[in-house]
Fold this sequence. Notes:
Elements: H1 18-31, E1 38-42, H2 58-75, E2 83-88, E3 108-112, H3 115-154
Parallel strand pairs: 1-2
Antiparallel strand pairs: 1-3
Amino acid sequence: VEKNASSFFDSGSAALRGEAERILSVIAREIGTLENQVYVEGHTDSRPYARDDGNYGNWELSVDRANAARRVMTKDGLRPAQVKAVRGYADTHLHPGSDPMDPKNRRVSIVVRSQLSNAQSIGESIKMRLEEASQTRTETQTETQTQTQTQTQTH
Length: 155
């Protein structure tokens, strides 16, 4: 979710601004009516951020931003089962063409996976499981035949 000349977050904060919450709520109500899988991604600008203890920086902040968006969206219509991942990218996926320090890099991305992608993914998973089952069945048949031949030869 990206809006020109605006930021969803203040610098160094994972708290969504009021306008951002309203936008995410509208999006959540719409996406919640679909069957699509959703990935929520958080981003930061390139301004170095670290708490005094050194254990919290842009990576943690970006994940917290994604989780803040996920919480608002699941409260307002997105079904929890639709959320397949919450990801933080720090400043590794900057807004195209923007200055790395630009506040519009402090954002979240809501990725809605297409139904075709879902179907292909499910189809690939089923195909792989069928191939594994077929291979296991073949190995079992081979073992049984070998055991039968061995028993026949010893009698």
